[in-house]
Design a protein that fits this description.
single chain; 307 residues; alpha/beta; 2 domains; 4-stranded mixed beta sheet; globular; binds manganese (II) ion
């Protein structure tokens, strides 16, 4: 089986159609059908930000129902579940707070589905069925970070093929709990705190000390090696050695596909074993796929972009 691993759609249904066409998929009454012996694999973040979120979800969902695709859960689906799930311990409140910041990230989705509608409930129920990671044997797929301890915890707590249950969800929304750590790590990646006295300015102009990392880096020595910061900010990240408890590590074993990181420029590999296929389709970037044909060492010629 060959896999077409497709990055974060964020409601860009037109880009999805263009990419599927380019990959040789054809549209039938049941939905999009792949070429023989192929399957699509989606990396999550189907929703938020874009103009046609329901259409994008339905396209992916019908492919999964027909056995033509799989998808993992992104942080935006996990957030959507929390936003819509009442807290058992605090009537009137939700697992994810309805703060102005959380609302603004999710407002387009809520408007497009109709907040509180049957469609909204239905889609949230479906999001709970998306696995946080997929080990397909020859490849592994996760939205942001394949970290084996997190994978093991979620494997124990979320039965494969079953929706995420209320107990797990409540624990995963307790800041600092093992379940929270695991879901944060898998869907948002590894973040570390810069040493005292150091900070950088993020794309929104906010001064930060917590920085996303290239957890896949093959010889991580310093903060500067692994920090993911915007143009012009790299010099602000110190060249100090990483702390002993730094949890990032290069991948060995089967290749790992990720989304989430808002890449720009020409699609390229993170390492021979790691490919990020998110090239900012939510902004002005293309939707990108990696066409996997069985190779255990990835090849940058296998990227396909549309839009
Ligand atoms: Mn994401």
């Amino acid at each position: 089986m060959g896999y077409d691993v497709i990055g974060d759609i964020h409601g860009q249904a037109d880009k999805l159609e263009a990419l599927l066409r380019k990959l040789g998929y054809v549209h039938r009454a049941s939905g999009w059908v792949p070429p023989q012996e192929r399957q699509a694999v989606f990396l999550g973040d189907l929703i938020d930000r874009g103009p046609e979120q329901v259409k994008a979800v339905n396209a992916v969902r019908s492919m999964i129902d027909a056995g033509h695709a799989r998808s993992v859960m992104g942080n935006h689906e996990f957030n959507a579940i929390g936003y819509a799930t009442p807290r058992r311990d605090a009537p009137g409140e939700f697992l994810r707070r309805h703060s102005p910041k959380n609302l603004s990230q999710h407002a387009d989705f809520l408007r497009q589905v109709g907040e509180g509608s049957d469609l909204h409930r239905e889609l949230v129920w479906w999001f709970k069925s998306l696995p946080p990671m997929l080990d397909l044997g020859d490849i592994r797929v996760v939205h942001a970070w394949w970290h084996q301890p997190h994978v093991d915890l979620v494997t124990r707590r979320v039965q494969s093929g079953r929706a995420m249950d209320e107990d797990f969800l409540h624990e995963a929304y307790v800041n600092g709990s093992p379940e929270w750590e695991a879901m944060e790590g898998l869907t948002k990646g590894l973040e570390i705190r810069l040493p005292d006295g150091h900070s950088f300015v993020d794309h929104g102009g906010v001064e930060r000390r917590e920085v996303r990392t290239k957890w896949w880096h093959e010889e991580p020595r310093s903060y500067r090696d692994v920090a993911i910061v915007g143009d012009g900010q790299h010099h602000r990240v110190p060249d100090h050695p990483l702390p002993d408890d730094y949890a990032g590590a290069p991948v060995d074993g089967s290749p790992v596909f990720i989304g989430h990181y808002w890449m720009t420029g020409r699609p390229g590999l993170q390492s021979p074993k790691v490919a990020c296929v998110d090239y900012s389709a939510a902004k002005n970037g293309p939707l990108v796929a990696y066409r996997w044909d069985g190779e255990q060492e990835l090849d940058s010629r296998h990227f396909v972009a549309a839009g």
